[in-house]
Amino acid sequence: MSTIPSTITLPLEPSADPSAELPASATLPHDRVAELSHDFRLANARLTRRLRQQRANDELTAGQFSALCTLYSNGPLTLSELSEHERVTPPSMNRTVNSLVATQLVQRENAADDGRKVMLTPSEEGSALVRETRERRDAWIAQRVMKLSPEQQQVLAAATLIMKELAES
Amino acid sequence: MSTIPSTITLPLEPSADPSAELPASATLPHDRVAELSHDFRLANARLTRRLRQQRANDELTAGQFSALCTLYSNGPLTLSELSEHERVTPPSMNRTVNSLVATQLVQRENAADDGRKVMLTPSEEGSALVRETRERRDAWIAQRVMKLSPEQQQVLAAATLIMKELAES
DNA sequence: TATTGTTATACTCTATAACTATA
DNA sequence: TATAGTTATAGAGTATAACAATA
Taking a C-beta distance cutoff of 8 angstroms, is the pair B85, A44 a contact? Predict the structure, then answer.
């Protein structure tokens, strides 16, 4: 499953200020962490907005598609489980799920063991939609990732793992 | 300014499938690019939602603060310049700017050379707010970045540069 | 005519509070 | 009582279309 080598080397752009360079084995000092965190957070938010601009009109929204993909890869899930994974509140996710159920892309059933819970499962149609449209939906970013250097591609792969951990914390 | 060494080495978690490993000098094949792009895009969106959950109630919203930070670091800017940097449409940014002008954190003036343009500048109060609250606003992520390994910190720094390029493309 | 900004409007995303059903 | 889900409601964020002012 993983595409990530056990070690990689990153040749990066030369530092403008050589005195600012640090050995890779040292953690960053406090002010550098603050600067990096700030830059990373803003870059993350801007990239999300950039990706939103790319959405075609005749498709599921980003939130709907993300939830459907999660159910496709990790389902069946309860509403709480799905909302935690997607990092929104249950009422927010419930609205998204309603739209997916209304278009018959997701099935909502009562859990057999606990009448309070609902099990959410992608329908055949929903699963097919994921398989058929994922590549097209990801085309904008994939086209750009393809043009990155091997080292930059490895950075993104490693960063994806870190971002998943951050989102889960 | 840069905190990034010219080269870094990344020891990552061992691959579950050794046959999937590739030399770092090779670009990923098409299907791996698609997989990486998909994972990265979803991780990016989820992290944005996670960060949104962290927002305190008594502060500027994320969009307002991001715009103010951009004007603080890169201003003065016209509305179009700011909206392009923040990756939203001019009408969307205009709404954000209206709220910042209403609270006197940003000054809106007609450009001297072109009567159609407006110049947006953070006020003294706005600049002070950025300086005083940035660290607190970034505390949630900074706390987690601080606990990452040196290699993971370097990955995030390199990824931030790539994400900025992606958002600008 | 083209560009820059603005207003009007609508839709999506998200949250909090309050409610229902079940454990 | 506590938990899982839902409904009601409101606010933030965003876009498109139409308009005004200026170049």
Answer: no
